[in-house]
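Notebook B, p. 112. Complex prediction, attempt 2.
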Amino acid sequence: MDDVNGRFEGATAIADSAGAEVFVVELAEYSGPLDLLLTLIRDEQIDIYDIPIARIAEQFLARISSLKLDEAADYLEMAARLVRIKAQMLLPRREGEDLWEDPRAELVRRLLEYQQVREVVDVLERRSEDRRGRFARAYTQQVAQIAVARPLTISLPELLSAVDRVLRLAKKPHVHDVIPRALDVDGAIGIVRALLAIRARAQWKDILPRKAEPWEVLSLLLALLELAKRGELKLAQPRAFAAFEITRDSSSEAA
Amino acid sequence: MTPLAKLLEAALFASAAPVPEEALRLMAAHAEDGESTLESALAELRDHYDNEGHGVELIEVAGGWQILTRPEYTEAIERAQLAARPQRLSAAALETLAIIAYRQPIGRAEIEEIRGVGAGAILKSLHERGLIDVVGRGEGLGRPLLYGTTSSFLEQFALRHLEELPRADELAIALRAPRPATPTSPVPATTDNGEAPPRAD
């Protein structure tokens, strides 16, 4: 692979001097595995009808492995195809076998077809560039979509007085004092365990203190969920909005 | 200008999209301008714009005619934010469009086969931009949707009609062997189906 990378770096000097990051940017311009393949063939000045598959396959792999490609699957499919052709090329051929079919033929056909597409793209690009430079009348709808907001021309005092006006219109905000109350899940776990040590089943209301604070309710709920997760108890609710039943999990009791 | 040329100018000015030639022909027939035909009036209008110092020109496109601003004013118009150039299409989108333009009606699978890349998202965006449309359904499994190009495609690529694109056999294949053929690696001509004959070694 060292040897391949050496040649590969020689072929793309821009990437060498600027580091691997540039590669990604550069490769984003490839529109697909065939584009990459054609570029390799062109860079290396290879005869498309006699592609040195082993070399090209290795270069192809080197290039896609050094990159994060969005359409990695498509590139990998092509890499697999190249490796398969390479393997087929290595198979021994019988002497005087006239009907040997070049395993590269299909790839060459696709490359030539793709090359034609690229030529049409060049034509289309030239024409669209020409057309983009002319406007038709009644272009307004499209302008409305793309319109770029003009930069604001406003002085600092104007801006501040505008802020002042808005603030004066706004109501005084209600100020709340928020007292942080930590949840005591561990304490709640202790309560539930103590209860279940006496009773095999219990109900939500059994473990909840009479005038429970919200933080107590939440702590108990979290404790129940935690214990259910650990397998110490089971939670069941016969129907929606019904009080749920807490059952000691007998299977974990044995353990 | 002759009365017909002036009438056509007004009609073209009033329309945002290219005016189809049949519509202009119909107007010409009703105008009863004895001295000029549609062709001569259009030629007159075009010469008028070209030779008498105008900021617009008359363009034949997508089977119709349209008045467009001259390219030298594009930047000034854009800078003044009166109009904006449409976004360029990506290479992938252009490739897909090229394949559809030549092979229409064509299904998604065939496009993907030629490009070697999935085409779903690109087809969707080309369709949203009005450049392609579903023109039918193919035979075979699942009756796949078949796509074709629209007149908006012709308009955005300054084409009078599809035949203005180079014919497939006119496209040069720029990947000829860089070195002369040797007996060990002959450079065979492609056969009709584009496959290289087997190597004789």
